[in-house]
Amino acid sequence: MSTYSNYKPVYDIIMKRLENPSPAVRGVAAPKNSDVEQDGAWAFSSISEGIAEVDRELRSIKLHPDPILAFGPAPYIPYGEAHISRTPEDMAAAGALLQACFDRRNFFDGTRMEDSMRRIIKDYVDERSGNFPAKFKIYQYPLLLPKGSEGVEVAAYYKKAGIAEGADFNARAVRDFYFSIHAFMMLRNFSLVSLSIAAGTLCLTTGADYVGSIDDPCTGGKEAYTAGVIDTTKVMGSRFAPEINEIITLTGFIYHKADLLARCEAGTMEVPAPLGRNPTPLEFYECRWWDAALPVYFKLSLVLNDGAGVPVDEKWAPLGTRICGSIRKAVDIIIRYDELVDVFHDAKSNEPMNEVHVAGRYGGITAVQDYAAALAACVDEVATCPCTAGDVSHDYALDIAIGSSAWYAHVPHYRGYTQLAETRHLTSEKYAALAAKANHGAFITSGMAHSGEGNALQDQQWNSLTTYESLDPYVSGQCRHCAVICSWVVNRCLYRDDRRGKEAALRKFVREAVHLNGEKAMDGFFGEIVTICAGHKVPEYLVKQCVTAVEAAWKTLRAAGADMALETVAAQVVENHVRLDKAFIATHYHPEAYALRRGISGALSLMFDRTDMAPYPRIIDAAVIHSVKMAKECGAGKRKQ
């Protein structure tokens, strides 16, 4: 029996208070000293003062004073020989957690956050029906391989590679998916087992969000996600109990959002009183944090690793997010790369909470056009920020930022590579010209952005805060192109306390490799970056394994943007991604390999943000090009009528 099982009866009594929706009980006011424009939805207690009081009471209970965490017997590690065991007792315990999530779906009525979400959903439904004059609309694109269709390819590869098949495949695939994002982002001071446990816990959220949706990968339904949660039910230690309670409540919010959308479409949702303005970007983001499971996503790994050396508060929120806007935006980027790679998918899947779509509706085309450049800027800004939040907090945030860039483009589910392939005819000419102008390998040094000084990418009226700088072609003297590219590589791929010798070696290598080099293939370039980052404390065979995985990702990316057949791209992405996951796993058996992990995620993020084949800017450009064309065609059709 887990520690949470012992706490649950007491927690349920306290939480039952929130079944009463009256302001006196639930409390609709924001928590004391909370300002949505300055604070974030870091915890359950941030929703309202009434809920904050409940949270304080929950966390004050200490049935088990020993804070030491203990995992159950042999937690599942992806791609190993061990299967996910599913006894009836284990499935019942995990299923009870999922049911508890559903039971909490109405605990948010009347809160500031829920009022904002109602307004956003109402505007979304009105826009679809023609009753809201959106400033810019993202139109559906006829993708041949949409998000969710990858399940067949993943199943085929798991079977071919002897990893898993049948019911065992379903449970392992959903667990491996969530493990992978942790592996790409949680790079230093996190144990392998803890990342797998965190991934299993978060299967509660995907079980609520994915099953039955338009982009469901169809890997087994709720039974698979329930099996993925089993290891969570065996964690012992009082520190974990309130976090499980919070993730259950958060998953209840995901159910609540789906209920609000259904009611709004049916015309039965109560709409809050008009504000006389649109929701602001940070009012939107307060909702989106909960919709995206972010308050618990970054927190679980910190809890399971005693903070992982990152300065945190009593609720495990990183203190740097309150000090540094760059850190806050770097953490937020977990969601934003998702928004970008989903820009076409969400136009089809009835999703009201994609920030790119919301920014287009309220802010117009510029807020959409600037999105990818702003994200790349956020990554490099947190990498270089010198503020008092400190090196550890900035490096932790940068791990999240580069890992987000690397993972969302590469993981098969979001179809980053195949979207690049399906829309390459719209963007190839532009990006070939930009790379030719820079004449430094595949890197692009035009349209380099600054994301702005605020905590959001837009002002309160959704006007983009992004500004740009471009470099003229090199003529003579010190090369600014080399300086910029070297800084990108060093700052993304090395920790601040791991630069002695490595920084000079990286800068020398990059300058010699890219200066006035018109060759875009850059064979071996990213692998050499990873090798230099690894240093001499990691076995050579492990470095080679990681280099092979990174170089395969780059080779397939270039082919996807050129002429590789779509089905070949899709199959290759699955194989490449499993190879990368296995490489990350292998590094965890060597204590100094965090530098190698940083090199992997950093190198991948450079491919996906800063080159001529970068999926993120090319997908957003394709969305704008396609949507402008569709708007003209739809307008012409209306005029003919």
Question: What do these coordinates show?
Answer:
60% of the residues lie in helices and 1% in strands. The chain folds into two domains: 1-308, no CATH class; 320-641, no CATH class. It contains 27 helices and two strands. It is globular and about 70 Å long. It is mainly alpha-helical and 641 residues long. Helix 7 (166-185) crosses helix 8, helix 14 (325-341) packs parallel to helix 19 (391-410) and helix 20 (416-438) crosses helix 25 (566-587). A two-stranded antiparallel sheet has the order 1-2.
Topology:
Blueprint: H1 3-15, H2 23-26, H3 49-60, H4 88-103, H5 112-128, H6 151-160, H7 166-185, H8 192-209, H9 221-229, H10 241-266, H11 281-291, H12 294-304, H13 320-323, H14 325-341, H15 345-348, H16 355-363, H17 365-369, H18 371-384, H19 391-410, H20 416-438, E1 448-450, E2 467-469, H21 480-493, H22 502-514, H23 525-534, H24 540-561, H25 566-587, H26 594-610, H27 615-640
Antiparallel strand pairs: 1-2
Helix pairs in contact: 1-10, 4-9, 4-10, 5-10, 5-11, 7-8, 7-9, 7-19, 8-9, 8-10, 8-12, 10-12, 14-18, 14-19, 18-19, 19-26, 20-24, 20-25, 20-27, 21-22, 21-26, 22-23, 23-24, 23-26, 24-25, 24-26
Form type: globular
CA-to-CA gap between the ends?
67 Å
- DSSP helical segment count: 27
Beta-sheet strand percentage? under 5%
Across the major sheet, the strand order is 1-2
Q: Mean pLDDT score, rounded?
A: 93
Q: Low-confidence stretches at least 5 residues in length (pLDDT < 50)?
A: none
Number of strands: 2
